[in-house]
Amino acid sequence: MIRQLYRVLGPEGPRPLNRLLLLQCGAAVLQGVAFALLVPVLRTLLGPEPDDVWPWLTAFVVCALAHAVLQGAAISGGFTVGSQLSRVLHRRLADQALRLPLGWFTAGRTAEFSRLAGQNVIQVMSTPAHLLRPFISSLLTPATLVVATFFFDVRTALVLLVCAPVLFAVQRASTAVMRRLDLGRDAAIGESADRVLEYARNQPVLRAFGRTTEGYGALDDALMAEARADRRLIARGLPGLVSFSFATRLVFALLLALGVSWQLDGSLTVPTLLALLVLLVRLTDSVSSAAEAGAGLRIARNTLDRLGAVLDEPPFPQPAEPKTPRDASVEFTGVGFRYDGGPSEGTGTRPVLNDVTFRLPERSMTALVGPSGAGKTTIAGLLARFRDPTEGTVRIGGVDVREIGADDLAAHVSLVFQDVYLFDGTIEENVRIAAPGAGPGELAEAAALSGLDRVIGELPEGWATKVGEGGARLSGGQRQRVSVARALLKDAPILVLDEATAALDQENEALFARAVRTLADRKTLLVIAHRLSTVVSADRILVLEDGEITERGTHDDLVTKGGTYASFWERRARAHGWRLEAAPS
Ligand SMILES: Nc1ncnc2c1ncn2[C@@H]1O[C@H](COP(=O)(O)OP(=O)(O)OP(=O)(O)O)[C@@H](O)[C@H]1O
Asked: Which stretches make up the ABC transporter domain (predicted)?
């Protein structure tokens, strides 16, 4: 466990942890010495010359006092290292979240990540003070007592030395079984926690479908699995715990019998026997408390393992010698992509994109259209290097995105997604995330272009309106505009816009379409288009079907050509909220 603590603390932690370990070891050894000194104290007191006890008694008191001082320092050091652990772990987890490839964040892993950063860090925080100290003292105090026994009775010490590995082996075997069972139980508890959260979050859906009283299948299953894991832990873990307790009692009984027989044959005096018995009781107590601390230790070790595994995940590869894009053009050449997410996402290995090739010239507007699931958002993600293509190359300004440094790439590309996430804060803070140093003029321009200025005008607190967690206090359309203003304020030369299908009303839609068209004079625009107004005004349209570009050209070209686009156009042209759908087979 100590190795695991060093691992999760990383390069920042060794010094305070080293100091703490030194204090805890010192306190444990002094405790052992103090107990050992009880043997000469008792032996002298019960022997023929009780007045000789003073030097031993003084040594005992000095040791006990020194132990108390070190113990106090070790306890307070434990809390200090605990809070350092929490700070370092939160910082390292946040840094790691920034470095990990986006593809790593599957639904399951994101939930695990939030558990690790929340309850698990709190659990680990208490390890140095509440678990490490008893653990060290349950090892070092008995070891000191065994060494001390050699000074009082070599035979007893040898018996202890022979029995110690047996006790150790029994304890290890039972810990190994329990640790495996704990892992299964941890997973079951995590699953139940996720299902309860899902149940709470999805109350509106569940109530809408009248599924509140009869239960929620997935939650019931998770709770049953948790109960099964609990029963397994008790049934399979108990024999190990009982055997360890039995083995300690057996060793005690053996030593008692031997001590009495040595006393009867005259090779051990009564005072020494009594003093040794006191020491043995203390020794068995220490060993038993090691077993009691075992459950907490096992859980902490499992948690530290999981934290270490996340912190050691390899980061998204960055170029050794980053290159700078020459301009703001974009080029996809023979791009193929497949999601390699785990079975939990049910993705399989079907390619999502196949041989996608296109070029977006600087200062132009391209509309990407296609049925739902065709791969449009995936293309946007590859352009921003959220993931790397499985085949082919994505270039910005003639440079492969894999060769552009992360900061440079972020400065070149701005994205507006359909699923807008706002941080808990004011509208202004949310927009300014993109460019904290932006002046009032730039802020006002971004607000005017995105239509956010009208939203601000209608809200009593204007820019200072609190958006709530995730932007929950704003409507879908308002959130969308905050997110567009944020992307515009960043003023990256390439803007990817995943157009919302339903968030804007007609009046705003027309305004927004005009604003988007104006932007194309300044930026390379890729719009995942769902609205007729956007598609028609684009310089070129790319039609994506089942991961392949099947048609490309201007609106007029494509209508004249009479292909898929033209047939969609005919069927949908008059409907508001024009949306390309899969052709009926
Ligand atoms: N994170 C992911 N992991 C695995 N598969 C994914 C993931 N995201 C999308 N997919 C799959 O990739 C395919 C393309 O999805 P994508 O979101 O790119 O389509 P889209 O054209 O943007 O759809 P829509 O118009 O509905 O937003 C779909 O079959 C989808 O199920």
From this structure: 330-571
